[in-house]
Amino acid sequence: WRGLHRGRPAFAATGRLMATLAGVFVWDGQRIEEEELQRSAQEMKHMENISSLLQGSDCQRLEPTMGSGEQPWEMIMDKKHFKLWRRPIEGTHLYQYRVFGSYTDVTPRQFFNVQLDTEYRKKWDSLVIKLDVIERDAATGSEVVHWVTHFPYPMYSRDYVYVRRYSVDKENNLMVLVSRAVEHPSVPEDPEYVRVRTYESQMVIRPHKTFDENGFDYLLTYSDNPQTVFPRYCLSWMVSSG
User: Which label site among 1, 18, 28, 120 has the fewest CB atoms less than 10 Å from its CB?
Assistant: First the structure.
């Protein structure tokens, strides 16, 4: 039994490798599952439960997280409609960031569609070099996206290959968008760009009223490793000032 048990992961890895060599993307283990969407939605509910503590609070080390034994979040920006925390990613010089914010003059659906519409982003985001959906999963609606973006001179442009999935939950009045980095055989590394291999993003939108009336809160949790050589204090200054 032990021999068989040990062999299964190797067999799965071998199968994935063979598929990659054949130029086929294997969705098993790569698609965004329903549990990931639900986990993000639960984080939003947890954040809403403590939002009363945030109003007018000068506390700098609140813990807007559901996990136990995790690093606390440190607040680095506190404005009326925009609060930003960070926490160190263990074993790295990087941080994970969390934003809790509000808009009053935009509808949730407009905001959500801007996140999803790759063609429209090419028009309003002057940093975009490439942005295309390269594959879709019929089972879950997950999509693989290739995104190439300018970085400040003299750094190379960065490119991301990531899978994303979104959900509009009418019953719970929520919109959810989850993304994370993957590898795809049709998008090999390009020597002109630096490939970002570590990237995660979860966004949850809660309408104040309905999806098509102005006003909503949003929760964004984000981390990536853009492979820059900036020291941590320099990154902290850029985040807190920009």
Answer: 1
